[in-house]
Amino acid sequence: MATVTSLANPTRFLSIVDAVVPFLAGLTVLLLGIGLYLSFFVAPPDYQQGETVKIMFIHVPSAWLAMFGYMLIAVASLGTLIWRHPLADVAAKTAAPIGATFTFIALVTGSLWGKPMWGTYWVWDARLTSMLVLLLLYLGLIALWQAIEEPGRAGRAAAILALVGAINIPIIKFSVDWWNTLHQPASVFRMGGSTIDPALLTPLFVMMGAFTLLFVLLHLISMRAEILRRRVHALQQIEVQRAGSGR
Amino acid sequence: MRPWLALLTREIGLAWREGGAIGTALGFYLVVVAITPLGLGPDLNLLSRIAPGVLWVALLLASLLSADRIVHNDYEDGTLDVLTTGPLPLAGIVAIKSLSHWITTGIPLALLAPILGLLLNFPIASSPLLVLAMLAGTPAVSFIAAIGASLTLGLRRSGVLLALLVLPLYVPVLIFGVSTVSAAVTGPASPWPPLLMLSAFSLASIVLAPLAAAAAIRNALR
């Protein structure tokens, strides 16, 4: 019985997802198309950085989603631990690989941007370092989920780890800033002045909106897949039990 | 007070009598510090510059070696189930266990550090501050390791997973610990601000980590 009542909510969720996904997909493609067109054909090359400034249109949205993904996991973990919400666990689990991927994209594009700008693929800049630590936290979460077989226990364990990480992230960020200023008084990374020209800012905002929609879309689809996967698993177990008791 | 003390004596007694529990960590510490110059070359100036970092990283790895001992043995033989039915709150039990891990691993490693520092041309004059910084930082190491150990209860390959989960959380310990020691050796910055940060981090993890670890153990015992 318990399985049936807990499935009631996911069923409603699934029907909502089925209705929303096509529109969301269309909107994402449209906005991504506009954003990419603006970034590559309309936005002028930077007077110092040239065409490489266009890496920013992929890099900044990815970095934003890397942090957004972890925030989402932390909030969902609260939902898992406090309200035992059956979807919170699914939301946290499926957000982790997507967030990790965006973190990875942010690191890779950042390092490709760094090569022409700073002359090296990697500097131990405070921002890069905290992104790297964030990626490690994501990988730890994913590894924990894969190591525990029972989904309920895995969900709660990962929720605890996610919250420990969420408390620790500001401290890590602070300590990394401290560490970097201690070792490299003159920071390498300075965004061409503090203001970005509006001609570059508009495509950037469009791309951030498009990437966020992409994240939500991917997240909804993989939540649906995860719910269905668990359902198949539950059905298989019922089938096995029936076969066992039928003798 | 009696049950707390009884549990603490039991934990320390077990670590002491379970031959090699403390010795292995110390031996591992010695080996890691000893092979580092073989990889980097015998340049004493270079070694003395990187000595604080090498000593700290090796200390973190050495204390992770015995981290799963904090709760795993008691989980496997059922002691943990018995303890949870006793008078002590679970968070308190984990705190005592982490404290015992600190006493049997953190303190010996911190005391060994200046001797190993000699291998790396670490100035003897700075040794007291090195030991002080490590004594201030190792409680955080033990208490956070308890979270990792509780999360990986009963899992296969739990040792490697524990390291993957816990090492990123040690970034502040490493940074403030190395900052303290480096500032003491090279100056001109004062070693006290990072030392206070390190102590604050340790105190915060002493308070918060047992709560997280207790939740994880309850989840595993369910």
Number of helices of chain A: 6
Report the strand count of chain B. 0
pLDDT < 50 stretches of chain B = none
Distance between the termini of chain A: 24 Å
What percent of residues of chain A adopt helix (DSSP H or I)? over 70%
Task: Please provide the count of β strands of chain A.
Answer: 0
Radius of gyration of chain B: 18 Å
Question: Quaternary arrangement of the chains shown?
Answer: heterodimer
Gyration radius of chain A, rounded: 21 Å
Fraction of residues of chain B in helices? over 70%
SS class of chain A: mainly alpha
Largest interface: A-B, 28 and 30 residues
Helix segment count of chain B?
10
* Topology order of chain B in helix (H) and strand (E) letters: HHHHHHHHHH
Strand content of chain A: under 5%
Q: What fraction strand of chain B?
A: under 5%
Low-confidence stretches of chain A at least 5 residues in length (pLDDT < 50)?
Answer: 1-8, 184-194
Structure description:
The complex is a heterodimer of chains A (247) and B (222). Chain A is an all-alpha fold and 247 residues long. The radius of gyration of chain A is 21 Å and the shape is globular. In chain A, helix 2 (56-83) runs antiparallel to helix 3, helix 3 (86-118) packs antiparallel against helix 6 and helix 4 runs antiparallel to helix 5 (151-183). Chain A has 6 helices and no strands. Chain B has 222 residues and is mostly helical. Chain B has one domain (2-221). The chains are: A mainly alpha (247), B mainly alpha (222). Chains A and B meet through helix 4 and helix 5 of A and helix 8, helix 9 and helix 10 of B.
